[in-house]
Amino acid sequence: MNNLPNILFSKFTRVNETVTPEALQPNELTQLENMRLDEEIGVASTRKGFARYHEQANTSGVVNNIYDVIDENGDNYLLSAVGTKLRKNALGGAGWVDVKTGLTEAKLRMAVYGTKFYFTNYEEVPFYTDLTDTYDMEIERPDVTDI
């Protein structure tokens, strides 16, 4: 815990980067770095840092993506696309578990719908997972011969 004082701005409104400094109101800032803002009470304080959950990422591949997700039971997981694998770890858990292997090393894009996590990297078959089971999403080309 640091002993640096908080800075109080009376009725703090925002960080305003769109105007010249001469046009700023007394309760606006032009720049704020490494700070956390509580806009309700107008307090700016330093960030509190981070917590380490694991000694290592347990990988020799490149980490292309990392996501913080919550499953249908409300459990928090980290998902990480590492090399050719998508891996999961219960937050604070002991180790990483493969969700899907055999991927290319292209960066994944994720979308959440309900309790499912959908992934694509535009190079292979899209897939989804509920963190227990993983399924490929085969998309068939429509038959347009009779149109």
TrEMBL record:
This is Uncharacterized protein. It comes from viral metagenome.
